[in-house]
């Protein structure tokens, strides 16, 4: 198998702004007296775990992928993808053991038997190509720990449509308008990986993204603002230019020092969305 080397890297930065309240629960209460507290940093500020945002982002992409002509198993069995638990994965692993596949054979089989979203977001056989950092409030935001509200909830009897006696509870939400720093990394993506990433980002930039719990109650509506895209491209043929870019990347201390900021983030999203199979025969607006 050919050794893996870094060729391209993208960094997507921005602000995730809450349009409604947000509830992402955490087991560590940090002094909260609520029945269901939100997750906090050790200093008491609310944040969104990268795993939570990745789950919402992946779910958003998985719903849209089939509509744009790409494959997505949605991590459900019997969808033709070995990334999901089920008989297909079991049969795939059995064949690997019985036929003692080489690394090259395994790579070939995975190319054929993993859906497009499992190739991007990861599977039991291959690491994710996309990385989500925890979303923290901006460092200059000294009031984030004050942006937590407590709301009341009651259990409802679905037959009588009335509140159940003595089953009142409360839960915390992060107040609307709170802002979190967004950081998504993408390493050595295929053209499909880029298109799927742009598909998910486009939904959140458009204000159609949701994250966290209690969404049916109106919570978790959010929007990405001020999206900035940085690129490292080491695929150029000019040896001197490639060495210059690599040196800049290795010695730089900030994204702006290490990589090239693309001039128009929305144009980047649009360009890669137009590569999706379902849009190939659609005239450009």
Question: What does this protein structure show overall?
Answer:
The protein is α+β, with helices and mostly antiparallel strands and 285 residues long. It has 2 domains: 8-68 and 127-279, no CATH class; 73-114, no CATH class. Helix content is 30%, strand content 22%. It has 8 helices and 8 strands; from the N terminus they run βααααββββαββααβα. The protein has helices at 50-64, 87-99, 103-113, 116-121, 191-205, 239-251, 255-258, 265-273, and strands spanning 8-18, 130-132, 148-157, 162-174, 179-187, 209-210, 221-233, 260-261. The strands form 2 sheets. Strands 1, 2, 5, 6, 7 and 8 form a 6-stranded antiparallel sheet that branches. Helix 1 (50-64) packs across helix 5 (191-205) and helix 5 crosses helix 8. The longest helix is centred in the first third of the chain and has 15 residues, at 50-64. The chain starts with 7 loop residues before the first strand and ends in a 12-residue tail after the last helix. The model has no long low-confidence stretch (mean pLDDT 88).
């Amino acid at each position: 198998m050919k050794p893996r080397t870094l060729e391209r890297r993208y960094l997507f930065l921005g602000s995730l702004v809450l349009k409604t309240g947000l509830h992402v629960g955490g087991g560590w209460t940090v002094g909260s007296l609520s029945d269901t507290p939100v997750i906090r940093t050790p200093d008491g500020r609310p944040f969104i775990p990268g795993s939570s945002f990745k789950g919402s982002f992946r779910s958003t992409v998985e719903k849209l992928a089939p509509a744009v002509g790409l494959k997505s198993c949605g991590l459900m069995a019997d969808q033709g993808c070995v990334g999901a638990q089920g008989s297909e994965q079991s049969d795939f692993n059995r064949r690997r053991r019985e036929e003692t596949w080489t690394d090259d054979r395994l790579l070939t089989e995975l190319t054929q038997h993993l859906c497009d979203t499992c190739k991007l977001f990861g599977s039991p056989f291959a690491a994710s190509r996309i990385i989500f950092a925890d979303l923290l409030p901006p460092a200059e935001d000294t009031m984030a720990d004050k942006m937590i509200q407590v709301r009341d909830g009651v259990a409802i009897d679905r037959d009588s449509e009335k509140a159940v006696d003595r089953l009142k509870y409360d839960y915390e939400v992060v107040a609307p308008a709170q802002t979190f720093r967004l950081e998504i990394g993408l390493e050595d993506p295929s053209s499909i990986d880029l298109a799927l990433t742009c598909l998910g980002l486009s939904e959140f930039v458009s204000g159609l993204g949701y994250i966290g719990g209690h969404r049916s109650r109106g919570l978790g509506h959010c929007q990405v603002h001020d999206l900035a895209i940085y690129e490292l491209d080491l695929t150029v043929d000019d040896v001197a230019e490639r060495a210059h870019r690599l040196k800049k990347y290795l010695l730089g201390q900030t994204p702006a020092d290490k990589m090239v900021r693309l001039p128009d983030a929305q144009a980047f999203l649009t360009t890669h969305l137009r590569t999706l199979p379902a849009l190939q025969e659609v005239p450009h607006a």
